[in-house]
Design a protein that fits this description.
- This protein has 23 helices and no strands.
- It is elongated and about 105 Å long.
- Helix 14 (about 250-285) packs across helix 16 (about 310-330).
- Helix content is about 50%, strand content about 0%.
- The chain is mostly helical.
- It has helices at about 10-35, 45, 75-80, 85-90, 115-125, 135-140, 145-155, 160-165, 170-175, 180-190, 195-200, 210-235, 245-250, 250-285, 300-305, 310-330, 340-345, 355-375, 375-390, 445-450, 475-480, 495-505, 515-525.
Length: about 550
Amino acid sequence: MDPLHITEFASERYFDKLRRLNEQAEASSSAGAAGTSIAPELPAPLQAPTFTLPLGNPRQRHVDPEHAALALRPSDQKKRSLGHDLTALRTQRRPSFVGSFGALRSRVTTIHKSPSIIEHHEEILAQDPTATVSLTLSDLFLTLPNELQAQIISPLPIHSILNLRLVSKNFHSLVTLNESPIARYHIKHSLPAYTLKLYPVPDASQINLHYLCGIWHRLHVALKLSTMISAQATKEIFLRTTPALQAEFEPQSRRMRQRLMPLVFALFHFFETYRHLHVKHLTYGGTPLRHQPFTLNPIECEVIAMYDDRTLLQVHQVFPLVISSFSRRLRPPSYAGRIERSLKGYLKDRPPDEVYASVILIGGLRQAQRFWETKGYNIRRAAVDTWYGFITKTPVEAPPKSKVSRLTHFGRKKAAPPSVEAPKPDSSAGHDAETCNEWFCVKPSCLAARRRHSTDNLVFHSSLAAGPPMGPLTREQLRLLLPDLQHLSNIWMQTAEALILERKIVDRPQDIKRNTQVLLELIKDDGTDGMDDWATNNT
């Protein structure tokens, strides 16, 4: 039998004692309300909005004689710990104690100012005490100190943080003013290691959302292209055409996609850096490449020098697969003859090589992804011709009329092919800049619609205002760059293979794997997903 002074928590004796304490508290509060109708006025020191820390040894504390009447008795403290209704005591502040430090009184002042939301609600309650004011979760979140707010939103995914900027001005300011801690958190916990090798972390003053979102933009493009290349290879090379066969081939397709992603990311870096150095070389009066007698492209040599031996070899082996997959996307099916092509509406052949070179060297892999995602061969070809016509300011070739158009009624009914109009030099060619969904559209109306905003406006003058990687070039830069583009067959391949042999990464050119061997290596089940080789120290 337990002693009587020990009460087990949540036992029957515990609840009996709790019930008796509640009855005593109610009786004492009713007796106090009947005896007096005016609440005693609090002393002036207790009305000050300060909180005093009890410094010193708790056993040696002495209560200020001036406030001895307001000191809490042990029974009151016990009632407070049990959660009783002490409304009368809630209106009183705890007295300041004087410990072993003598008459020194410790005060803690609040640095964080309450937002205007709380002040507004207090004003409403002061005017009408019966009014019901409800605080939303965002209102409560904005009452936290700025440091806590930054720590809470930093682990969110990048797209969630960017969407948070669209909620309200308060959240937009919160994200904009805390770009550096958010970016540092994701650099440490989210970005793969191979991205930081190609795009090293800048100085502390340059760590912002533009650097972070730029890397995530490149990763997004690499993931999209890797997924589409894997799907195309699964269907057209490995001949998994039915849903059942594709589901059976899913593990190999997933390995191919995961192993392609860092290689496509490295190709994005190559095209981006190559265009930057090429434009810089021509802008500062350098000799154009078409006028230089070289064996190896000097700009390509400068970019490839940034890659280690293993990265260079693997990117070189996968480069023909990426280019051939994109080229296959922009040409009609090879099995279609003239009559079948006319019946199905394939009215145009593949673009010239200079169009491919312009797409990947000027638009980059992001522009290639846009064209790849366009459904319908005629629409896709028209989009390529329109884009190339806008950057070159040349008339776009109209789609030819089929000589066997009389047979078209035998096939299924096709929608009319989109009309492609040549861009007018001094007009926007009917393009509406307000309804355009492109991030950085190169069409004249969108270029003219962009304007510079005041640097005092955080909405338009954040770090993201610098634009995405490989943004559109100016008309003067295009005028210098377009005539100096290399032929499609001379991009990367010759320079990379020569440097591989020069570095002695392989002994012979025959040791470099070709498309068939590369595809087999990409789907090979060796117990890993292919990402461990890139030393990804982050999740």
